[in-house]
Amino acid sequence: MTTQGRVAAENRRLLVRLAIAAVVMFGFGFLLVPFYEKICEVTGINNLIKPDTVANTQVDLARSITIQFDANTHDLPWQFRPLQTQISVHPGELATVAYEVSNTRSEPVTGQAVPSYGPQLAGQYFRKLECFCFARQTLAAGETRTMPVAFVVDPGLPADVRVITLSYTFFEVAARRVAGEGAGGNS
Amino acid sequence: MAAVMSDHAHGAHHGPTGLMRWITTTNHKDIGTMYLVFSFIMFLSGGVLALTIRAELFQPGLQIVRPEFFNQLTTMHGLVMVFGAVMPAFVGFANWQIPLMIGASDMAFARMNNWSFWLLPPAAILLIGSFFVPGGATAAGWTLYAPLSVQMGMGMDMAIFALHIMGLSSIMGAINIVVTVLNMRAPGMTMMKMPLFCWTWLITAYLLIAVMPVLAGAVTMVLADRHFGTSFFDAAGGGDPVMYQHIFWFFGHPEVYIMILPAFGIISQIIPTFSRKPLFGYASMVYATASIAILSFSVWAHHMFTTGMPAAGQLFFMYATMLIAVPTGVKVFNWVATMWRGSLTFEPPMLFAVGFIFVFTMGGFTGLICAIAPIDIQVQDTYYVVAHFHYVLVAGSLFALFAGAYYWLPKWTGHMPDERIGKLHFWCSMIFFNVTFFPMHFLGLAGMPRRIPDYALQFADFNMMASIGAFGFGLSQLIFLYAVVKCVRGGEKASARVWEGAEGLEWTVPSPAPHHTFEEAPVVR
Hints:
Largest sheet of chain A: 5 strands, mixed
Radius of gyration of chain B: 23 Å
CATH class of chain B: Mainly Alpha
GO molecular function (chain B): oxidoreductase activity
Number of helices of chain B: 17
Number of domains of chain A: 2
Distance between the termini of chain A: 65 Å
Strand content of chain B: under 5%
Protein name (chain B): Cytochrome c oxidase subunit 1
Number of helices of chain A: 1
Main location (chain B): membrane
Strand order of the largest sheet of chain A: 3-1-9-5-7
CATH topology of chain B: Cytochrome C Oxidase, Chain A
Distance between the termini of chain B: 28 Å
Organism (chain B): Aromatoleum toluvorans
Oligomer: heterodimer
Order of helices and strands of chain B: HHHHHHHHHHHHHHHHH
Family (chain B): Belongs to the heme-copper respiratory oxidase family.
Number of strands of chain B: 0
């Protein structure tokens, strides 16, 4: 009986340790989230919301690209719209457009915009020199703000792409700390 | 524990009878049987889903199901087979065999063992019941990738809860197995004398404890994204869908080995028995199993070569993946070396074991091909991948389960399974398996995408062939059902040792194994 009691006690000790290991691994799953964001930040994989630089400023006058603008909000009571729905640019030409956003809430709200592109492939040829999406935007109660986007379409854009849609989605920065630095969507 | 100890006083089975006996049982043999029956029912349910898929794919065009329902079928087929059939089946084998093999009277935590089983039926009801709720079952693929899984209807929530429950059951089962193997061995049974099935299950149990909670975390994040306003995986809320894939496959790749390592263990028991030789390279088998388990944590992103990883990442995961072929190769060579110049006989367990080595190795080779990043980018999400993982999961895990069932059925039932029916089952399974899945390699290389209910006309012939094979394979499994029922009801009496070349403690107890065994621990020399 004494050996049986000893084995039972030892079993229980091992059970507790393994159960703790399982709980720790559950936490580890959540820990992967900030870990992943940090890796993306350090290696620069997810640099959707950082200014681009333009090396080649040769303007390709032979081609015109239609750029369409789109604006969405995600769980955010803001009015958000582009001031022009589409423009035509030559690759390599600097263009500036404006978006207007107004806070309809009666308190200051901080939001962050993420860009996405259609077709997806065009994203890597779309160089934004200035954009409101590079930083979080805090709007006072009822404030309306006009924000510019300055961009150049890289002349390396494949010839079959004639229309690019640039779409922004604003979401509220509250629970998650992400906004400013690391995590946008993937490109 | 208390229940087990008081049970020790009784000789034969004693306690509630009828249904209550099965609900309240803490006996490892009863629980093992329930696991095996449960997993076979789930195997048949998952099979019906698979045959519906193959019926739709018999001809190009849409004939039988709507595309949305087709997506539910592929998703649920994967979930049911992985979490309902293969994993519980191996836990069933562990429950029956591990105490018998190491000379323990029962599992370490008999009451918890009962719980780990009885969590499964509610989870299965949740999972399969999700077909009948508005919006139907989850259709996001068995990987439940975000953002699809964030957008589905309530069937998705039911699948998430089912996964939580099944994960909890697996973790409890795994803890039980680790404690039993580490603490309950008979005197003299050192770790390196332990049967290989116990070794592979010990390592598998550690894998389960390490990764099932990560899956639980991932699906909890999906649940939070769906209902609690977080944005872990929603890009429009600052999240990242690719991150879901990283977290999922951090679980998912070790999961692959959770489903195959116990199979390796079963094969390592059977090959020596029917070769009448000890296992070649026992120690190297143990080390190979451990290295596969450790390496499995560093290869997950080979499932994600097309997500836009940097080249350095692709190279790392490509080479790490190919490295796993080394310990796996060690195992295959050891099995072949065990058979080399042995006095071989080919009873049904051995047929399935040899068939396993042959077909599993083919699946291993296509795995190596998929590991090469530039090729994987071509075949990703095509039928080539479907062929690959069915070669390792059906011909790997499932054939090993059949081999183990035929091998230990005499010990469980006291009767020899009908050898002619077993052989018929093997040859039907083997032939129809290859008729089903071999053409899928060609379909995949030609570019047929997976998870699509319709296909281009040039794929028609091979798809028809695969569908015919699938129905043949499905019906062949009824032969197995018949063989098992026949064996349970009667047949040639089995001796204690059953097989001429069998070695190990489980063959020292009478057949069928009495309700209580090894109440006095045997001494291993």
